[in-house]
């Protein structure tokens, strides 16, 4: 066996792999205790999980995290054979770095270990690729921070997904990817690019230029763009009609493409002051971490030192393995436990202050962004595109009786979940772009969920079962998802608020609200042209009752009803729809459709306007049980009536509600309609380098 040299070591693979793996775990404790169980479930509520992490509650430090260290370009050069004992590392080498090394030439190795005393920094003024057949483990420093004219790539070209074992805190030699462990420091610091902005005009098939809502920063010829679908849900492929195009030239806010668009991307006027063009996502970055299309790697962080991950493109990550099931005669694949796109694993409070900015995770076989039991992480201007499983997620509960472990103070700012898929799609039960899980102090602002696939209960944003988190949720958009915009399925203990939300052209409901009992306030929001309707109400109130107030619900001719009640599993407090405008429905503004095997409706519709060209304001399904109470007071009127089973009679003023009416008292005096005035941004938030710029 070769002697390990202080300046760095190269050994042949074979026995060297085992030796490298042994050294990787030697003489350094884990960053924190590893509770029993694995790194999380492959698909959360769909497939179970390992043991949940311990409950949060440790003190939150008041001091900000230390500033990032400077990138030291003063180490020895990788290309200097003398630093390696006379022989440069090669494709069969297990490389161990214990000192400061600057990568100044393309290289290929068998594996790489950067010890706590070592660092590997890519030269900023060169385009460089480091390829590794096996794991890259960072216990010291790894920095990819090129200038704006060059590109840095860490590639895993020989991944065999069949060998992956999955698991928790420790490095697994067969699970090829980038591991940041111990007190390792990872810096991915690419040149800033505007992550996404919207088209300023309608786009047509054959167009080869795109006029953007704002001039983008950092876009270059050769950048790859994804143009999101915006067509109505009665259009073929309404949730999948993306265009992937390449930039030829950028002139201010006008982008010229190397080829024409194939699909139409209309601008959509929702009302409430909001008109949306297609999002144009820039998928290119000059820092890249990637596997291959046929061999997906992963990024796994357990280091107690906060990482700096900015303006990087992570591609072909998230390995999958054949499961026990089959579909149409072929094995159904499942994600490998804990091997995701960008995975912060059980860091607890040591991750506080971490910022992930302008990062793209694309073409990935599992979850894209995973802050699992890791608190205080901000994701700003990030994009998940064409990824499998819930895109923004952390480990779900082991069953429906066990609460999810929390991640506190997670912030999604101007992030996009685009084309989230599942295999096979008919089994994509409750697939979502953003899983708004357990914890406190978290927020989602100015985010977009588009092109999420899946089946029953799938959505752009989900408040998942047994995973109650208290989120600030505002100015978020869901459109052209195959199913719902928002899906709530909580028996909630806390009060929740959704405001300045917009949903258009989804294949299901703008909001599907369940499960049994909870208290939500939905305010100042617009639901437009969703195929099933604006709102489905499963849940009755828990303590205060759920309120939908000041909404514009325009079915745009796509659905029979603007709002419909469905099965109420448990009796609860009243749900109120107030000060809203309902229009564009084919049959009725509000349909009361509680089922006989559940509890009856307890709903108040107060001070609302109705503008359907067809149909009536209300309709009581003759198959529904007699309601506990339905209160109705149209906008501009003082009289409140209650609705009951009509026995074939007519309603107030001859309107065919299929209901009998009687005078009633409303809980509040008449109020004016309060239509929303949306204030959305048309571009991702501005981002910068770790060191400024």
How would you describe this structure to a colleague?
With 693 residues, the chain is an all-beta fold. The chain is built from one helix and 59 strands. The chain has a 33-stranded mixed sheet that branches. The longest helix has 10 residues, at 15-24. The radius of gyration is 27 Å and the shape is elongated. Mean pLDDT is 90; it is low at 1-7, 12-59 and 648-654. Residues 26-91 are annotated as: Disordered.
Number of strands: 59
Q: What low-confidence regions span 5 or more consecutive residues with pLDDT below 50?
A: 1-7, 12-59, 648-654
Strand content: 35-45%
- Main beta-sheet strand count, sense and barrel state: 33 strands, mixed
Task: Report the helical percentage.
Answer: under 10%
Coarse shape: elongated
| Average of per-residue pLDDT values | 90
Secondary structure category: mainly beta
Number of helices: 1
Organism: Kitasatospora saccharophila
Keywords: Signal
Protein name: G8 domain-containing protein
Region (Disordered): 26-91
Itemize the secondary structure elements and their pairings.
Elements: E1 9-12, H1 15-24, E2 76-77, E3 93-97, E4 100-103, E5 107-109, E6 111-114, E7 119-122, E8 128-132, E9 136-138, E10 141-144, E11 152-155, E12 178-180, E13 185-189, E14 196-198, E15 209-211, E16 224-227, E17 243-251, E18 254-257, E19 268-271, E20 274-276, E21 279-282, E22 287-290, E23 299-301, E24 308-310, E25 313-315, E26 320-327, E27 330-335, E28 342-348, E29 355-357, E30 360-364, E31 369-374, E32 378-380, E33 383-388, E34 411-413, E35 416-421, E36 432-435, E37 439-445, E38 448-450, E39 459-463, E40 469-474, E41 477-479, E42 484-489, E43 495-499, E44 502-504, E45 509-514, E46 519-523, E47 526-528, E48 533-537, E49 547-549, E50 552-554, E51 561-565, E52 575-578, E53 581-583, E54 588-592, E55 602-611, E56 616-620, E57 629-634, E58 640-645, E59 659-664
């Amino acid at each position: 066996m070769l002697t390990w040299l202080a300046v760095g070591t190269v050994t042949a693979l074979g026995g060297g792999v085992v030796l490298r793996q042994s050294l990787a775990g030697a003489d350094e404790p884990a960053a924190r205790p590893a509770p029993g169980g694995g790194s999380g479930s492959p698909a959360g509520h769909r497939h179970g999980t390992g043991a949940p992490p311990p409950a949060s509650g440790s003190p939150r430090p008041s001091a900000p995290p230390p500033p990032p260290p400077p990138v030291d370009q003063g180490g020895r050069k990788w290309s200097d054979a003398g630093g390696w004992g006379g022989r440069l590392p090669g494709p069969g080498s297990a490389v161990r770095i214990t000192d400061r090394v600057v990568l100044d030439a393309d290289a290929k190795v068998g594996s790489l270990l950067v010890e706590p005393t070592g660092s590997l920094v890519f030269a900023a003024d060169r385009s460089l690729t480091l390829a590794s057949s096996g794991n890259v483990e960072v216990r010291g420093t790894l920095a990819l921070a090129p200038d704006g004219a060059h590109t840095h790539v860490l590639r895993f070209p020989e991944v065999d997904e069949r060998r992956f074992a999955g698991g928790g805190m420790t490095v697994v030699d067969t699970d090829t990817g980038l591991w940041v462990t111990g007190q390792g420091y990872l810096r991915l610091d690419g040149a800033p690019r505007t992550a996404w902005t919207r088209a300023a005009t309608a786009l047509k098939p054959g167009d080869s230029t795109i006029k953007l809502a704002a001039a983008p920063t950092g876009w270059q010829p050769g950048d790859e763009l994804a143009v999101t679908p915006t067509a109505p849900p009665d259009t073929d492929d309404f949730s999948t009609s993306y265009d992937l195009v390449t930039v030829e030239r950028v002139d201010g806010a006008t982008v010229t493409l190397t080829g024409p668009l194939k699909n139409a991307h209309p601008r959509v006027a929702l009302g409430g002051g909001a008109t949306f063009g297609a999002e144009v996502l820039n998928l290119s970055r000059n820092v890249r971490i990637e596997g291959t299309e046929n061999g997906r790697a992963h990024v796994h962080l357990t280091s107690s030192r906060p990482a700096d991950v900015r303006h990087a493109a992570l591609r072909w990550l998230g390995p999958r393995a054949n499961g026990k099931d089959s579909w149409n005669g072929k094995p159904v694949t499942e994600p490998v436990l804990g091997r995701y796109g960008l995975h912060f694993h059980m860091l607890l409070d040591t991750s506080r202050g971490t910022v992930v900015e302008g990062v793209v995770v694309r073409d990935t076989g599992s979850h894209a962004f995973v802050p699992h039991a890791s608190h205080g992480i901000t994701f700003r201007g990030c994009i998940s595109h064409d990824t499998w499983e819930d895109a923004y997620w952390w480990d779900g509960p082991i069953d429906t009786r066990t609460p999810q472990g929390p991640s506190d103070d997670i912030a999604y700012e101007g992030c996009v979940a685009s084309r989230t898929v599942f295999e096979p799609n008919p089994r994509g039960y409750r697939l979502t772009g953003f899983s708004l899980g357990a914890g406190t102090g978290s927020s989602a602002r100015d985010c977009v969920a588009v092109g999420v696939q899946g089946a029953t209960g799938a959505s752009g944003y989900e408040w998942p079962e047994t995973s109650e988190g208290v989120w600030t949720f505002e100015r978020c958009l869901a459109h052209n998802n195959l199913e719902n915009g928002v899906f709530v399925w909580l028996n909630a203990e806390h009060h929740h608020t959704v405001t300045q939300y917009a949903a258009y052209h989804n294949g299901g409901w703008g909001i599907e609200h369940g499960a049994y009992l909870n208290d939500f306030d939905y305010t100042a929001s617009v639901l437009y042209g969703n195929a099933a309707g604006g709102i489905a109400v499963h849940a009755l109130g828990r303590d205060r009752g759920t309120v939908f107030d000041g909404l514009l619900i325009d079915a745009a001719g796509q659905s029979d009803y603007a709002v419909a009640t469905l099965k109420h599993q448990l009796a609860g407090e009243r749900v109120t729809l107030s000060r809203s405008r309902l229009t564009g429905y084919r049959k009725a503004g509000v349909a009361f459709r509680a089922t006989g095997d559940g509890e009856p409706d307890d709903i108040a519709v107060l001070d609302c306007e109705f503008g359907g060209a067809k149909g009536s304001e209300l309709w009581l399904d003759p198959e529904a049980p007699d309601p506990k109470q339905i209160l109705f007071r149209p906008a501009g009127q003082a009289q409140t009536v209650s609705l009951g089973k009509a026995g074939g009679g007519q309603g107030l003023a001859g309107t065919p509600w299929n209901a009998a009416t009687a005078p009633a008292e409303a809980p509040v005096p008449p109020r004016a309609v309060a239509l929303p005035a949306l204030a959305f941004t048309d571009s991702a938030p501005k981002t910068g380098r770790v060191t400024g710029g």
